[in-house]
Please model this.
Amino acid sequence: MKLPVYAKVDLTTGRWERFEISREYFKKYVGGKCLAARLLLDLTEPGLGPLDERAVIVINTGPLNGTGAPSSSRFNLSFKNVLTGGIASSNCGGQFGVMLKRAGFDGLIITGRAAEPSVLEALDGEIRIRPAPELWGLDAEKTQERFPEWYGKLVIGPAGENGVLYASAISGERVAGRCGSGAVLGSKKLKALVAYGSKRPEVYDREGFDKFILKWIKFIKKHPMTGQSLPRYGSAGLVNKANATNALPTRNFQSGHFDRADAVSGETLTETRLIRNSGCVSCPIRCERRVPVDGRELKGPEYETLGFFGPNIGAADMDAVLRMNWLCDIYGVDTISFASSLAFAMELKERGMADFGLEFGRTDELEDVLLKVVNREGIYSDIADGTKRMAAKYGGEDFAINSKGLELASYEPRRSVGMGLGYAVANRGGCHLNGGYLALLESVGVLSMDALTPRGKAQFTAFMQDALEAVSSAGCCLFSAQTFVPGVFFKLGPNSAVTKLVGKVMPHMGPMVALMLNITPAIAFNSLLLLPHAEALRRATGLKMFTGGFLDLGERSYNLERLYNLREGLTAKDDTLPKRLTKELQDPSNPRTRVPLEKMLPIYYKTRGWDKEGRPTKRKLRRLGIEEAAG
Model:
């Protein structure tokens, strides 16, 4: 069993050292965001600001990165969340994670601040920090062009340099979008990180691993979701689905339906703009859309970007979405937080509370506003701080659509109340993925339970959160977990009697799901075949990892992140949503069209093994083997 090796880097002194993860930590935390959460708890002092010189950012891989496992090019950035003050984890594709491993490092632990703009090079087992003031001010595209094509690169754009709170980091055309990773790297004067090496990652059982991977790839290609729907439309295919169930945020979440949604849908994108499919390294799903922008072939927008630069600002301009998607990426701006902040600014003007020169339905000012936000010019510097801080200055807290300070994703929770619970409790703030992505089982998936009932949602949310946490910690894309819904339901279709019956039964399965989460999962889930990551981990590492232990890994990760948030002052009072979503009815004639957090939160805490204040109990921490992490 090869133990992970990290490079511990101090940018202030320019020194670094190898840091081997202990056998105990490897067995318990494995890698990716789970291991990163534990390292942040160990290596950071409480109350330290996210942009402080002593703040730590962990950039790491999972054991499956670079092994050839499907969808395994994802790497993780964990740090103190610039927007929420709690924990942040931001996931990214691109070449950097794979090349970091080939360079001989499973991760980087970075602290300090360089004296001038710098580049961190991880090349064949060595780390070098060199000044690069000539790169400061360049966009992400031009910065990456300064390095050899075969390098893995992770860079920031001008937004990160200027401290835009939701600035992102970019690897190739992939983005670590959420929580302000670009702002953290910018505060450290770290303009770019590059990696290259010739070491092939070691695999414990290479023959068995390779055979299993071939079976897994065939399974992915055969499954209707990962073999047909995602390759055909990508995540953009969710626009019309969400609109059909009134779950598509429109005009700053004032409603969930947009009459012109089809103009910015995945179907329209495929029919009128698509050049070809592409995808991340080692991924058979190929969900990326290549589209024309200014005469060039570039990466197309995901569902969130289409939703937020489309219906949520009252617009239906596909060309504007494509261009804003590209500009946000090269300037290093999270499309979700930025576009959501624009929608909030538009509603402020609509109500006569503030005027940023933005109006619902107009896209002609977007590029100009983006540049002003990136450069923090005048009043637009407020937009660079996100909706929560804007609301504190201008008012409008009831319709500033965020949780804990992070803007929500593009699923209207009043038509997906389990997703609303997930937004409220998500450790990094208003995130659909960290929140368990229950929208897939409520409003946009083929297998949909009653989207408006709170029944069973707490238990399913906890289960889904644990599963997705584990997949991420392994180093895989969360799309690889979409085979969890059996393919037979896609073949039957959402309107079949069988699919509808299962959807009706699911909310009543909550107690059973809770029971499974609180007994020894190694027994309960030992032979589950639709989540194959556990077997891949076992063959890659030699760890005794079965599906039960894999879900334990996810639960451990979620509880570690919760402990970090509690340490930093977040409490159960922060597990909430703005009043627009919890008090205002989306449909005035239907009293169920709001998010009933008061009904779901107590059950969620109980399911999690937390007390009434949302704190993990000693019993829960002891079962997960993380009592000492509570301090």
Q: What stands out?
A: The CA atoms of residues 455 and 507 lie 5 Å apart. The chain is about 40% helix and 15% strand.
